[in-house]
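batch job 7 of whatever, protein = DUF2264 domain-containing protein
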Amino acid sequence: MQPFRSPATPPEDRTLSPYTGHTRAHWEATADALLAAVAPYATEDQALYHLPGDRPSWSGRLSDGLEGYARTLLLAAFRRDEKALERYADGLAAGVSGVWPRIEHRGQPLVEAASVALALRLTRPLLWDRLSDGVRQRAAAWLGDALTAEPWPCNWELFPVTVGGFLQEIGYEPDDAREAVDRGLERIEQWYVGDGWYTDGDGRAFDYYNGWAMHLYPVLHAWLADDARLLDLYGGRLSAHLTDYARLFGADGAPLHQGRSLTYRFATTAPLWLGALTGRTPLPPGETRRLASGALRYFLDRGAVDDRGLLTLGWHGPDSAVLQGYSGPASPYWASKAFLGLLLPADHEVWTAPEEPGPAERADAVTPIAAPNWLLQCTRSDGVVRLHNHGSEDVRYDPHYSRLAYSTVTVPSPAYDNTVTVGGDPSRTSIEPLGVGEGWAASRHTAGEGVRVTSLVVARGAVEVRAHLVAGAAPGTPVRVTGWTPAQGLGAELLPGHNLSGDLTGVTADGPTLFTALARLTAEQDPVPLAEAVSVRVADPGEIRVSWTDGPEVRIRLGDGEVAVSAGQ
């Protein structure tokens, strides 16, 4: 697997960028290469981009062609490539003259309309203002259907907001446009849970949509509209989010492998750049660029771009396991959002400051994040980040949400890694957060009819103590516990504890039954034997005492849907 390098890619600069070697010139060269690679797949009128592949989305070929146009137009807009924008101007004229599908309720064209509108807003003097009056009128009318199209109740609510912001700016149906903006912003309020975190619609779907959608569109709208009140509101939320978000990247640049739409890959960097662009970030400029360039390099070095220069449907290279029904040949080009940083001038400190290490490179840390009820565990020795999930769930996209743990170096296994299987049922639904604290997180979930599992993890360094209290199961019900999936260069351990045999199975007793195990995922060579790093004693069926060899004792009281944790001396 050869790393992707454009012929125009400059030499690495290890003085300015000691961690990645990447500078602004590398981002520009990558954007130029991606734009050049898609150009041959445009239709003669430039209105559709039919990228190769035998996997259309469920929206069909015409919608997929529009997706190809819209998402690569967004890349050209961030790059401010006037020559490319001329091609897209021709495509726009043809598209709004009857080629593009209409924007309708809950249809994919509504998504792509947002990219078109945002690109037009960002490049207005270079593209929109150079169009003929007739093309502008037809384009505004095509976009105008987004003002009344009903979105799916999730991040889609922000697509009419994005279209409305542009149409309001150019004076097209200003009252309707303003109403669309206000309506969408009002609707996402019900999903804001505090500390910079949104759920992606009803329930507890926490994932990267926080960054590349829920924060991106409101903050960009406020910034482009020069609306100080909105920018303070949404920018403040973004800044709070970035404190946690920076911890989601491994030292090798990898984002956490959790959530859906992972084929958007380095779109994960968009909120990092957004914070710098709007001045709403707690991160030093050198750390912002280090995290963003690290993620870009991570994918470019691992086959994300094929030998034609096209982004593939997958994670590293092609990989159907990360795709959803809406994933079509051009879907990966929402990665264009990663190039938001090119809106910053070349002399901005985010481009000129020396790179600084990210959180996973600075120190070992076990960080509770209250809003999603997550526990983040990173180790400096190997740069691995692990997410203990005790609060995110989306049954539509299992296994991307339902597992107990995810990381920057593993992928969910079809064999149900990081799972408690009760009576042959590995499901984990109706997740109920029970809290997070210093070094721990807990939740309760349903596993089969009438069965409840209260789970807790306590972590220190790379070591984890996992406990599961199974209630509501008939006596003698088999229980199986799984841990991390082994991978090349990684040590994945799971040692049985209370009520588990050597094969990590056990059975329930008459009443709630406690099971414990020790786990570790590490790339460190010759770590301390897991059994020597921590000892676990069950004092009675609901009390656990965890003794770290290099830390205080942790006392845990675990009940059916209840948990109390305290640290001793």
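notes: The two ends are 51 Å apart (CA to CA).
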